[in-house]
Design brief:
It contains two helices and 17 strands. The chain is mainly beta. A hairpin with a 3-residue loop joins strand 1 and strand 2.
Length: 294
């Protein structure tokens, strides 16, 4: 036997598990996180698995008891899921943040760009579309815009933006943004906050820049993470409070940076609010699918 062990689960609570198996390795994920992995022996290979039986809640040892509980869903894929795909399936929410602080939400599930929580409904621009439960941008000059005044980011003491998205593989090599809230002066994005999963310098970044309209990039407080432009689903959260900006990608903390005195939420402009577009007029739009945005 080649196996990967994890903590015991017999607590009467809901859980999510993924097991992946390829030609060399077996991996075990609990609640969207990798628990352990093990190399396969020469004999333990997928081609050697018998087709005689296939069970749920029962094993192949006749003397062993059956499992007792509720299986809410069970899926089989003919590939090894990536870490991002596993987190997407798990919804990356081992702790539910609740809805008390949820101000705006775009699920795209009803075929519209409407805000399902607030009134900052989206407008599709330049051929952007909503289809199959996602915002789709497939060419340049396509994005979604909302009312920055309705969202009123500058009235928040702290903010978290969360996005489930799939980039078009290899299509986002420039300095684009998945989301942007702020202004655009002299062609530069200023007095705003943003998240970009891939850039010309091959990183992802969440940041805020306020008070410098001549060279706002030089005034940024930001956190970099690994570049995401692989055509796979991903989950990101960027948070900003009174002291810091923090970036999480696929449930992993990328880093935290302390804000400068000028970079504060109260200084963020309400002029523009975009998905798949940034505040720099010379930058490209982001191409891919945004499955949900909050």
């Amino acid at each position: 036997e080649s196996g990967a062990n994890g903590v015991e689960y017999d607590d009467g609570k809901s859980h999510f598990v993924v097991i992946t198996l390829d030609a060399t390795t077996i991996k075990l994920y609990f609640e969207g996180e990798l628990v352990s992995s093990a190399l396969l022996s020469e004999a333990n290979k997928i081609s050697g698995i018998s087709q005689n039986f296939a069970y749920l809640a029962k094993g192949g040892y006749t003397g062993d008891p059956e499992w007792i509980g509720a299986i809410h869903e069970f899926s089989i894929y003919n590939k090894v899921l990536s870490a991002g795909e596993i987190l997407f399936l798990a919804q990356a929410q081992p702790k539910d943040p609740g809805t008390d602080a949820l101000k705006h939400q775009y699920t795209f599930e009803d075929g519209t760009a409407n805000d399902s929580v607030g009134q900052a409904h989206g407008t599709l621009v330049g051929g952007a579309a909503v289809a199959d439960g996602a915002l789709l941008t497939s060419a340049q000059d396509q994005w979604m815009e909302m009312s920055g005044a309705e969202i009123a980011m500058n009235t928040y003491e702290a903010v978290s933006v969360a996005a489930w998205f799939t980039p078009t593989a290899g299509a986002n090599t420039g300095y684009h943004m998945v989301c942007y809230f702020g202004d655009s002066l002299n062609g530069f994005g200023s007095n705003g906050i943003f998240y970009t999963p891939a850039r010309g310098n091959n990183v992802s970044r969440a940041g805020i820049s306020c008070g410098n309209t001549d060279a706002p990039w030089g005034a940024e407080t930001g956190v970099d993470g690994p570049e995401i432009d692989d055509g796979q689903p991903h989950f990101v959260v960027a948070t900003i409070d009174g002291t810091s900006v923090t970036l999480y990608q696929d449930g992993v903390l990328c880093g935290t940076a302390t804000l400068s005195a000028a970079n504060k939420l109260s200084a963020v402009s309400t002029n523009f609010a975009y998905l798949a577009k940034g505040g720099y007029t010379g930058d490209p739009e982001w191409l891919g699918q945004i499955h949900e945005f909050r």
